[in-house]
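Deviation from plan, reported transparently: adenosine-5'-diphosphate complex.
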Amino acid sequence: SIMPATLAAVSNGAKRGILFKGGVHLEHLGSLKTVAFDKTGTLTNGKPVVTDFIVREGVNVDETLAILAGIESQSNHPLAVAITNYAKNIGITVKRNLQIEDVPGHGIRAFSDTGELLVGNPRFVGKELAEEFHQGIALALADEGKTVVFMKDDQGIIAAAALKDTLRDEAVQAIKELKSAGIFTVMLTGDNEKTAAAIAKEAGIDSYVAECLPEMKVVHLKKLLAEYKTVGMVGDGINDAPALATATSGFAMGEGTDVALETADIVLMQNDLTRISYAIKLSRKMQRIVK
Ligand code: ADP
Ligand code: MG
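Because the crystal trials were delayed, the predicted structure below was used instead.
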């Protein structure tokens, strides 16, 4: 049976856009020692925009962008949507004429008459090739916190698009509040090392794991669980659902995917990250009343 103090606190949370799927989830929060965050769509708005597009010497910029956008237009990944919109906005006709295959956590493989095309992160297209492209110019963009998507054909890298996503307005404040409540903060992202480092620094996060494939998010959560005994996880994507299920307390962003919303214990209805520290403090206060 639910304690009156829990009931009052759950309804207090609801008024502030924190949906607890049961009083027990509120009770767990007070003992959290660490909280892990997904990056894209959780710490950031999840709506990246293309800031730079560079191609191999001797190839036509518009034709290359048309091919890239033709591939990305077949994916609903936020990066893919951004690249497709960028091409359309500058007047490029986007044709979905190539067959594609999704490679989760890496990018897309496409099949053209002239051979295979790879679209995705440095690891997917080859780290050395990515580093050498235009004497490292593409990876220098990653130091600014941009995500760089490469396209490779059988002759090497043909193009790179840099995309910038922005931190949610309240992300810095939310992390600061958690840290002052004594909570260790971690970011888990599929993005590359340089981009992850830049975003983690911008957000003020204690620690991060880059190039974290979907299944690795669970592995890292289990490590945090072993070390801290309790761990919170905040995410928005299908990719985050297994980690949300593994965490002591799983938080989904209200605008997250259905799977994330279903799997989470707590939903941040207004996508406001500062509600996490609020909820933890609410739980701690409630525990003092009950005891
Ligand atoms: P995150 O954890 O940042 O939400 P994902 O696991 O969805 O990222 O993807 C990890 C990385 O794989 C992305 O940062 C990107 O480099 C690459 N990637 C995934 N899907 C695509 C795509 N459709 N186009 C280009 N790159 C992609
Ligand atoms: Mg995400």
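The chain has a mean pLDDT of 95. We consider this an acceptable substitute for the interim report.
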